[in-house]
Design goal:
By secondary structure, the protein is an alpha+beta fold. The protein folds into two domains: 180 residues, L,D-transpeptidase catalytic domain-like (Beta Barrel); 128 residues, Nuclear Transport Factor 2, Chain: A (Roll). It contains eight helices and 15 strands. An eight-stranded mixed β-sheet has the order 5-4-3-10-6-7-8-9, sandwiched between helices. A five-stranded antiparallel β-sheet has the order 2-12-13-14-15. Strand 12 and strand 13 form a beta hairpin.
């Protein structure tokens, strides 16, 4: 990328931010994050910026880096399409420059001083969108400013080292969007309250004996790795008769958004008359006719309740028995 183009993109990005009042600088994707002190990385592909947001009592922009993404624009669908995926992912593995050199030899030069690997493709990518490919990283560069990649996100080597202080493996999400949309606090809070209420009402419906009410939270387009809505609902009706006294406790809740899909993730502590388990639950929610509906969900068993986020990245998805 030329110096002039880099300067122009930075200027446009800053102008974009300055056109919004200070109290409105809230990315629409940051809806709720029950991890005080933790960070979320946001990649704006159109402005070539990687932003670091930290949550305490409120979100704060801690740092912003110039970055590059895939050589071709748009969402990644297939291996080798030279595009960077849009979505919500987690960083689960890191490589130092020395480790990269030992493993990849001279080819590692393109990754610079190190890299972080993303959980692409995620469950939603596989089940609903049929995406493939892997090896999407955030990494440094061979020298100077980053250049367009085969699908990864690249920053300069000094910026990568600076970025590293904000990353906790398996706990730091990365939200990648074509363009980050900023909303005011009122709009964000309204959406936050609506989604928190949806999750709470979904939980209560599951705990109740009214299985039809529980199923009303799901889209008829709902799919999992092994079921469509019809087969999944049939199974739920059978389980509802067998399992009594259900209690669900939700903790470590995050609500983040990619385009048109809300990604809800939490630790689910489940107990009933004959089953007790704990796992990481993901709900993928969209709007249909003005109402929130679950289009897919995923559950991964945890070996122990703490630390849930560290366990999560290394657990295989499985079909819940519930």
């Amino acid at each position: 990328m030329s110096i002039f183009k880099s300067f122009l993109l930075i200027f446009l990005f800053l102008f974009h931010l300055s056109s919004v009042k200070a109290d409105e600088l809230l990315p629409s994707s940051l809806i709720f994050f029950d991890y005080p002190g933790s960070t979320v990385l946001m990649v704006d592909k159109s402005y070539c910026r990687l932003m670091v947001y930290q949550f305490q009592d409120e979100w704060e922009l801690k740092q912003s880096f110039s970055c590059t993404t895939g050589k071709k624009t748009g969402d990644k669908l297939r291996e080798g399409d030279l595009k960077t995926p849009n979505g919500v992912y987690w960083l689960f593995k890191s490589w130092s420059g020395l480790e990269l050199a030992e493993y990849f030899g001279k080819a590692a030069n393109v990754y610079g001083v190190g890299s972080f690997e993303l959980t692409y493709p995620n469950y939603l990518d596989l089940v609903l969108y049929g995406k493939n490919g892997d090896g999407i990283w955030i990494h440094g560069t061979s020298e100077g400013e980053p250049v367009a990649t085969r699908g990864c996100i690249s920053v300069s080597n000094p910026d990568f080292l600076d970025l590293s202080q904000f990353v906790t493996l398996a706990s730091t999400p990365v939200i990648i969007k074509e363009e980050v949309r900023f909303v005011n606090a009122q709009e964000r809070n309204q959406k936050q309250q609506a989604l928190l209420a949806f999750v709470e009402l979904w939980k209560r419906a599951w705990e109740s004996d009214d299985v039809e009410h529980y199923l009303s939270f799901y889209s008829e387009k709902f799919r999992t790795g092994g079921s469509n809505y019809k087969s999944w609902a049939k199974r739920k009706r059978v389980l509802n008769k067998r399992i009594e006294q259900r209690k669900i406790h939700i903790s470590d809740l995050s609500i983040l958004e990619r385009k048109n899909v809300v990604h809800v993730r939490f630790v689910q502590d489940y107990s009933s008359s004959n089953i007790t388990d704990i796992g990481m639950k993901e709900l993928f929610i969209t709007q249909e006719n003005g109402q929130y509906k679950i289009i897919s969900e995923n559950w991964s068993r945890l070996k122990s309740p703490q630390p849930a986020t560290l366990q999560y990245a290394y657990q295989d998805s499985e079909e819940s028995a519930l």
